[in-house]
Amino acid sequence: MKKYNLLAFITLMSFFSNCSEDKKNLFSIDESQFKLLYHTDDVVSLSIKNEKNKKIDSVVYFNNDKKLTTIKENTVFKFDLANEKLGYKNIKVLVYYEGESAEIQARIEVVSSVEPRLLNYTIINTYPHDLKAYTQGLEFYRDTLYEGTGNGAGSGTGIRGISSLRKTNYKTGEVYKKIELSEKYFGEGITVLNNKVYQLTYQNNEGYVYNADTFAKEKTLPYFKKMEGWGLTNDGKNLYMTDSTETIQVLDPETFKSIDNFTIYSGSTKIPAVNELEWVDGKMYGNIYQKDALAIINPKTGAVEAVVNLVDLKSKVKQHPDVDVLNGVAYNPKTKTFFVTGKNWDKMFEIKIKD
Fold it and tell me: How many CB atoms sit inside 10 A of residue 66's CB?
């Protein structure tokens, strides 16, 4: 009896497995006309291969799990990429036929058609900067410069410093106010939104919210997944966070949950390691880590539209064993100029970017 039941079970499972496999192989997305890479001015023709000539009632198309349209029977669907962000598009299709349904998938990649411009800059002023500050975030708020630092080495000693959040007089380098994090926390990017300072941590998987006036900590917000914290900025409503990859996360400032994301491309190449961020007039300025350059990014698509080469600035600061890469970009709307510095630099530069 036991042998019989086991045999019946195996036969039954085999039947369902074969049915599932056959159902899966009934249809496929016709990729014969797919291009290797797409641009946002392209239109993708999507249709279904129906090898068994099943009677198709309707076809529902999804892009990254967002419904695009429903097509009666099996006519061609023109997927216009004009309003799409760059990156991979996972095309999912639900085929309804003869009272049944089947799911099939394909993927395309949308890359940038923009040729980034190379922009120049002029140094307007040079100001003192704390040589022991391992700069991770820089931002102006009400004409005061806010700076976040990490646990970097300081002043040629090789000794790791303490992460901090500070307000400074950008003209003199005087620190008006400073708080320090515990040694186990490595501070990263900062931004100011609605009179609150948001500060990331590197590998502690959480961010902090402070009162911008008093620096009193109001919240600790865990990241929505395990990830590194790098750069941070805001558009007046949401936060934008980098994590060492080519992806920028759009975060809800109340919860730190991801509400969107986009991938950074220069041409057909993904650009990882965008670090410190600044939002200016609808564009995002990203400090490319270890490249001593700024990428000007269109946050609607993820395309790098211009690059500012700042390599020469490092040669203008005091050279010592702990001097590190350029990191830190802030825009002063009052002067309409940018302020840039680096990790353990003794100077900060006020620059004007131009074509």
Answer: 8
Nearest to 261 by CA among 41, 58, 88: 88
Q: Which amino acid, one-letter code, is at 148?
A: G
Q: Which of these ranges, 160-164, 283-287, 300-304, 317-321, has the smallest mean pLDDT?
A: 160-164
**Cα end-to-end distance, the chain, whole Å:** 85
The whole-model pTM stands at 0.89
More confidently predicted of 202 and 19: 202
Q: Is residue 50 within a helix (H) or strand (E), and if so which, with residue range?
A: strand 48-50
Query: In the prediction, which pLDDT does 152 show?
Result: 83
- Cα 343 from Cα 293, distance rounded (Å): 14
- pLDDT band of residue 130 (cuts 50, 70, 90) is very high
The residues spanned by each domain of the chain are 20-110, 117-354
The sign of the CA dihedral 323, 324, 328, 334 is positive
pLDDT at 194 over 90: yes
* Strand ranges of the sheet holding 144-149, from the earlier edge strand across to the other edge: 135-141, 144-149, 164-168, 175-180
The fold adopted by the segment(s) 20-110 is: Immunoglobulin-like (2.60.40)
**Distance separating alpha carbons of residues 335 and 98, to the nearest angstrom:** 68
Average pLDDT, the chain: 92
Question: Are 292 and 306 a contacting pair, CB within 8 Å?
Answer: no
Strand order in the sheet with 187-193: 187-193, 196-201, 206-211, 217-222
- Nearest 5 degrees, angle CA 236-CA 185-CA 214? 50
Question: Residue 158 has what pLDDT?
Answer: 57
Q: What is the pLDDT of residue 226?
A: 97
Measured CA to CA, the distance from residue 138 to residue 192 in angstroms comes to: 10
CATH level 3 topology of 117-354: Neuraminidase (2.120.10)
The one-letter amino acid code at 126 reads T
Pairing mode of beta strands 337-342, 326-332: antiparallel
Distance CA 116, CA 295 (A): 9
Output the CA torsion sign for 343, 344, 350, 352. Answer: negative
